[in-house]
Structures are given as C-alpha cells and as structure tokens.
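User: I need a structural model of Peptide methionine sulfoxide reductase from Fragaria ananassa for a docking pre-check later this week. Nothing fancy, just the predicted structure tokens so I can convert them on my end. Input:
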Amino acid sequence: MASSTTNNPALDLDSDTPENPGHELAQFASGCFWGSELRFQRVVGVIKTEVGYSQGHVHDPNYRLVCSGTTNHSEVVRVQFDPQVCPYSDLLSVFWSRHDPTTLNRQGGDVGTQYRSGIYYYNEEQDCLAKKSKEAKQKEFKDKRVVTEILPAKRFYRAEEYHQQYLEKGGGNGNKQSAQKGCNDPIKCYG
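Assistant: Understood. Predicted structure tokens for Peptide methionine sulfoxide reductase:
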C-alpha cells in the first residue's frame, strides 16, 4: 500500500495491485461477505477472493468495530480476476444476483451500514459498466429504488483470517460448501 494521500489512510483509494499485471481487482458489497465470497469463488476466471472492510473512515478496523456501526465501512469481497476469461460485466451479474439492491443498509436479517449494497470500482471502465448495470437493474424494479452506491474503491482492509473462505472451510457448524469453479449448489449462510 502506498503512503497516505490524505490525513486518514482509510479515505485513500485502494492502491493494491493484482498479483498478475493482466488481472484486475474489483470490490463488491452485498450484505454479509461470507455468502458473497463463496459465489465469487465459484466463477471461472476469478483468481482470488478476500473479504474485508472498505469505504469507511477508521484506519485498520476489525469486525467488532465495523459491526458497531461507527466506522461506515462496508463488508466487501475483493475479487482478483482475469478479464480475458471473466469480463467485469460477468462479475456485475453475480453481484446483482446475490442480494436485494433495494434495501438500504440491510440484507435479510443482517442490518447495519456494513451490509449496504455497493460497487467500488478501480478504473473508469468499471465505473461506466457499473452505472450501466445499475440503470438496467433499476428498470426491473418498477416501484422500488435501487440503493446500490457506486464509488471509487477506497483502501481495502483484509478481514480477520477466520472470515476468509468461511463457508468453504465449513462456517460455524463444519458443513463445508464447494468453491469449485462452476458449482451451482445452493449457498447456505450460517455463522
């Protein structure tokens, strides 16, 4: 991570780079990051996923602090992908399919600003595609407003290790779920 360009590193843009120069990064917030991460893990062309916190104002947050509602961070999945195999538009389709983008600061029983809907982009092309996809999604909802925010990706703070690939590792009850590419098994989210 480069040095801070503001007085608060949490407000800086995410300057991390993919491990391979031909790959890209993307950040998505769609409620609890466990189920979202597993869905992205299954996408052909996704090289790596990490869950963490972004878009907040507190440097080096942790899960307990984010859940307190005082940091303004979102729970996000950061995806490293090969755009030659998996176009960004495919990731947007996965994002929209994983949650209700019309509920503000909640997904199901999970309530709080950390569960808001957001697309956090790394370049102008991602910004443009995200906005077009939101416009298309809004047409599907006649009487509801899509509340998904689309903003530049701020610094990514990797969540605690036990959150990484949580459902693939068995979650809270030891029932491992497949992260195999192309898997369409239902995703069961449990703590």
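Before docking, keep this in mind: The chain has a mean pLDDT of 95.
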